[in-house]
């Protein structure tokens, strides 16, 4: 595994952060949350999933979100990056209420959030490197990405797979590629939905380490996962808060985890 010592830790972190933003630390007194949900309610087709839900992600924080299948973890993540609009309450992105933001403002805020989706889809006809560059290509910032790409690929351990097509990748390689794609724009927040869903324990650990490293670089990280073993393993690496979504309520998990 490539650890911070091997690839240069913080110095490298600065280089894989093209946007050159941030360096907040968790616990900055009274600091503005990067994402905040206030009394949020959400449901589909008249069926309420949750209500009165509060969540505040501070810069530099690390949260796990757990809960039974169908509790609404993916839905909650989608609210956090304004993929969905809440049916009740306020969703604040970087201090702005999404209800009063136009489409462009929401799009700008979303660029500051990197998302690793549960199914991590790629364009199968494009090599891995192109897929990772895609968010910057679309934003007209491809050249910026090309400068950082070799180091980013090395960081996720995929230097030798740059030319591979997505269908040729293993599950763990896909997850790491998805993480690289999520961070190439230099987001301030990383939201990961079951990033270790289909990969073995060693690879889960490796992915966890990458997320912890991102967090040490100052990013807020929120990971939705069923995997309580992963959460327990993370405790040795990071001061993470564990939130449990269950029967429409979001609770801080106790010492039983
Ligand atoms: N677009 C949608 N339309 C209707 N119902 C939906 C939609 N998306 C999700 N649901 C339902 O909402 C509930 C919560 O789904 P969600 O995917 O958020 O849960 P989850 O906790 O992430 O589940 P899992 O752990 O299985 O991924 C489920 O019952 C799901 O079927």
Automatic annotation (TrEMBL):
Q: Which domain of life is it from?
A: Bacteria
Where does it sit, as one GO cellular component term?
plasma membrane
- InterPro entries per the UniProt record, alphabetical: AAA+_ATPase (IPR003593), ABC_transporter-like_ATP-bd (IPR003439), ABC_transporter-like_CS (IPR017871), ABC_transpr_LolD-like (IPR015854), P-loop_NTPase (IPR027417)
Q: Where is the ABC transporter domain?
A: 35-257
The protein depicted here goes by the name: Putative ATPase involved in cell division
Q: Name one GO molecular function term.
A: ATP binding
The cross-references to Pfam families, in alphabetical order and at most eight, read: ABC_tran (PF00005)
Key words, A-Z? ATP-binding, Cell cycle, Cell division, Nucleotide-binding
What are the leading ranks of the lineage?
A: Bacteria, Pseudomonadati, Pseudomonadota, Alphaproteobacteria, Rhodobacterales
Q: Which GO terms describe its biological process?
A: cell division
Q: Does the keyword section mention ATP-binding?
A: yes
